[in-house]
Amino acid sequence: MHASLKLSNLSRLPFSLKNRARGVLSASLEQAAQDVKKFCTDVPTISSDNRPFLLPVFYTFLDPLQIPATVDQLRSTPTASQTDVIRNRVLLTFYSLQSIQAILALDSISLQALSALWACIWPWISFLDGYSDNLPECNIPATTKLSTFATLINFFANHVGKEIFSSPGVFAVVGRTWAHLLTCYKSNDDAGIIVDEALSDISQFITQAAEHIRKHPDSLDDLGKGAGGLVSRLPSMVVSHLRHFIPHSDTVVTKDIATTVCGMVPFFFEDVQKHFPAFSRALLSCGAVPALITVLRAFGPDQMLVEQIFALSVVHISYFPRHKSITEALRAGLFPALFSYNTGRWKGAAVLWLKNLLSRILPGSTIYRSTLVQLRLSLAERDSWDAASTFTTDNLSDWNAFLELANSRFQILNDYDSGILKAPKMCNNMQCMALYSDDDIQACGGCRLFRYCSKDCQLTDWRNDHRWVCAPLSSHRNDYSTNSARDKSFLRALLHHDYDTHREIIAREYLRFALEGPNLLPVLVFGYIHGACSIEVDPLTLLINTLDFEAALAVTRDGRIQYQIMAVMNGEKPSCLLFPFREVGRNFWEELRAYAASLPLDGNALGRLDEYLPVVLELMQRE
């Protein structure tokens, strides 16, 4: 026992206070509980010279050796008198914990004494939490009890450290406390203040435990179990925590609120994502991106970790499905967050994240109708933004290039919405393969990927080979299902637009391909990974590793269907979407190969492709 916790220290108290303390020690359980409750109320009024000498009183009542006997009584069927004893023991313990909490908040205690205190405090917290459903009614509000636990655990974590994180079950208690407090109504009354202070304690505890969580990710499992489920329960709690303290962008962010919000940062670390791969996606589904953007807008340029929160926002915006995250971020006010300060806010590492956002993430999402619609709304106030004062020269160049690309896509969107630009679909019956509007063609009820203009065409294709490929195609449906029907329709329309706009480039690529690989089937690849369209023609067989089944199916159709690949970003990795485009017939490929074979093979043919384009364009016109 540490010297400061020995009862002999009571002799150092003034006479009246000493007699009062000794009276508590000699009282019955019921009376002692009431006396300690009164002490807890009086602690702030007692002289700072005397408060530390009261610790031995409360320490004495927290003897862990009392716990086994209490547990045995609970496991049997206690009599009425035994129930009263248990109730008074619980009240005495809880008021002792509150009294220690009050003293620790006001006075400095040695580290050795704190370690000894924790050795007695933690077993009782663990007991009161673990047996809460079995204990007699004590009229202690759950919020008050759990808030006391949170405050004590955070205090000892802050002053003792690693010893606290290794205490069995401490993360489960924190998780249970956290989940309960998040369900409490936030108000400005005393109860609301208690909730906010306890949530702040939990945030600080998580910040202190960040390194421990990195090394021991299983701690998150305990946190999730304590919250009433698995670790998958935590993402919704993280987002609720952020929204609790910063519900809207004009929230006044005090230093305490900033500290509390930053306590959630460890949950976004890469270490957590690696140990729990589904964690980041769960965060997204719970609204992490809008919550982070709201925090970013509310934070001032001098708030702690503002650059890290911006980096986390960019990282999670880029996760799959990226365009949906961007749409949410735009709706939450991504651009106002960027332009909130025109005093050179974006410096240092933030410049690199901003470049990634402006030159890669945002441009790559302008191929989706849903994003473009929101983007057009979000850019409506851009004339009031001072980009020159906000961005570095490099970032400003990226911003202007992005605006130029966005404006060109807005025009395509206008043509699509007005019906000028259409996205016809091809009947997949090999004996038909005509193009139809959305209203005149229906999807297969099995795979939902092949389409037919009539029941006769569907039946014919089923008898030919679709019955063998329908189920495998269905298993690949998830690759396409992240996009809404409107987004998929717009993607097809964008392909048609860029095909017609870049016919000369396509003709040049076709001819180059015919010269380099005359015996291979080609596929058009439209790259939108960084936003602007790039076009190349590649061998269809090279795509088997990416689109194994679809590519193999295309090969079996012997080149009669012209396939187009859209290379897009799905999350952090490139992804390919395969679109049957139109029937081209074997004559096109045969005539193109024949023409390529007739060109002089003097080593300069590839250098003089433009001379031969008119013939290729004429062949393409016959498709």
TrEMBL record:
Recorded superkingdom: Eukaryota
Keywords recorded for this protein, A-Z: Metal-binding, Zinc, Zinc-finger
Signal peptide range in chain numbering: none
One function term, GO molecular function aspect: zinc ion binding
Protein name: MYND-type domain-containing protein
Keyword Zinc-finger tagged: yes
Source organism (scientific name): Favolaschia claudopus
Gene3D superfamilies in the record: 6.10.140.2220
InterPro entries the UniProt entry points to: Znf_MYND
Domain (MYND-type): residue spans on this chain: 427-470
